[in-house]
Amino acid sequence: MRTVYTDEHRHQDGKFELIEGKFLPPFEMPRRAQIVIDRVRAKKLGPVTAPDSFDLEPVHRVHDKGLVSFLQTAWDEWVQAHGCYDALPITWHTRGFRKKPPLPEVIDGKLSYYAIDAGTPITAGTWRAVKGAVDVALTGVKLVNGGEKAAFSLCRPPGHHAGSDFYGGYCFLNNAAIAAQAFRDLGAKRVAVLDVDYHHGNGTQEIFYNRADILTISIHADPLQEFPYFLGFADETGKGKGEGYHKNLPLRWGAKWDKYEEALTTAMKALKKYSPDVIVVSLGLDTFKEDPISKFKLEHEDYFRMGEMIAGARKPTLFVFEGGYAVDALGINTVNVLSGFEGKR
Ligand code: SP5
Ligand code: ZN
Questions:
Q1: How far is the CA of 225 from the centre of ligand 1 (A)?
Q2: Model confidence pLDDT, tens digit, residues 189-248
Q3: What DSSP string runs through 229-244?
Q4: Which of 78, 99, 105, 328 has its CA 20 to 30 A from that of 321?
């Protein structure tokens, strides 16, 4: 299959994330995408193409205009206020505050308004990288809509934690959600998003929660144990017209392929029943046993099987790259899924 890729992602290169009481170099680093594209080329997965450039209309179909314009100007506002340091918030909008507060005037307040964590630094090149990732996703949509059976959008930064009006979890705009909506706008009647990242796809869930035209399914670590903690429970099944069109399959820490396969089998059943015109896969590889911030135990081999199982739906499929932080193994695991999908081992 074809891979869509651009070097623009390198412009997201933060100095720090706040994790376990330490300021560490971000786990979400440029080398992640580099090692994947190297492996795609080495294994001759297929041609690699540069993305087209799209305007922001497809982004605004999914995200609040305030969030989008905030992301475009946040770095300049921050530097003006504090100098050349990564922009991170230290206050959040939680219970006990006004439900719908006005957007603060100052940059520190705006960060607090839009961010869900202090792990997602905004830097000089963040917007450039974020826009590149959206273009990569939308170019993948164009390929699959044009008749390709599958495509791989090698997006970086990732997207599935970003919601209609919030960002975090290394994500700024939701590449997979933007892609899913774009498929609808190009005429697909039903779209399914299958999220196999280790973390719950809270942004994707929030964006499509009350809709029946986009089925969303996420397999992830139990939110009682893992980031993002406050969404992703099994009893969240959609709302209003969307009732029955969202599925969460949380697994406890330590899950190996046996447990994972059960969940993926359940997911694929739901997906086949829905019979979508197209599938978007939020492809996170942080379920790997050596991932430094995660606690599932998948092996290299398991990713072939994952790809084969997804292929079992026999639908046009767009893979959108999400998380995965065991960087040395990331190329192998990613390409194993895509090769498994194509019936090659
Ligand atoms: C796209 C994606 O995979 N985002 C993940 C964001 C995770 N953010 C921080 C999670 C903190 C987990 N605790 C660290 C345990 C390390 N021993
Ligand atoms: Zn993740």
A1: 11
A2: 999 999 999 999 999 999 999 999 999 999 999 999 999 999 999 999 999 999 999 999
A3: -SS--TT----GGGTT
A4: 78
Boundaries of domain holding 202: 2-54+125-341
Ligand 1 atom nearest 160 alpha carbon:
1
CATH number at residue 198: 3.40.800.20
For residue 335, tell me if it sits in a domain.
yes
Q: What is the pLDDT of residue 3?
A: 99
Q: Identify whether 59 is part of a domain.
A: no
**Span 20-74, pLDDT tens digits:** 999 999 999 999 999 999 999 999 999 999 999 999 999 999 999 999 999 999 9
Rounded to the nearest whole angstrom, what is the distance from the C-alpha of residue 241 to the centroid of ligand 1?
32
- Could you tell me which of 299, 294, 220 has the C-alpha nearest to residue 258? 299
pLDDT at 345: 84
Q: What percent of the chain has pLDDT over 70?
A: 100
* Residue in 35, 9, 14, 11 with CA at minimum distance from that of residue 26: 14
Residue 74 resides in a domain: no
**Ligand 1 contact, 276 CB (< 6 A):** no
Q: Helix (H, G, I), strand (E, B), or coil: what is residue 70?
A: helix
The three-state (H, E, C) secondary structure of 122-183, written as one string: ECCCHHHHHHHHHHHHHHHHHHHHCCCCEEEECCCCCCCCCECCEEECCECCCHHHHHHHHH
Q: Any alpha helices (H) in the chain, and if so which ranges?
A: 30-42, 57-60, 65-82, 107-114, 126-145, 175-185, 202-208, 257-274, 302-311, 327-341
Backbone angles phi, psi at 217, to 5 degrees: -135, 135
Q: Angle 174-268-311 (CA atoms, 0-180°, nearest 5)?
A: 85
Report if residue 256 sits inside a domain.
yes
pLDDT of residue 323: 98
Tokens standing for 282?
A: 């939020």
How far is residue 44 from each of residues 37, 142, 148, 307, 338, measured CA to CA in Å?
A: 10, 22, 17, 17, 11
Coil vs helix vs strand at 327: helix
Ligand 1 centre to CA of 28 (Å) is 9
Q: Write the residue with the smallest CA distance to atom 15 of ligand 1.
A: 293
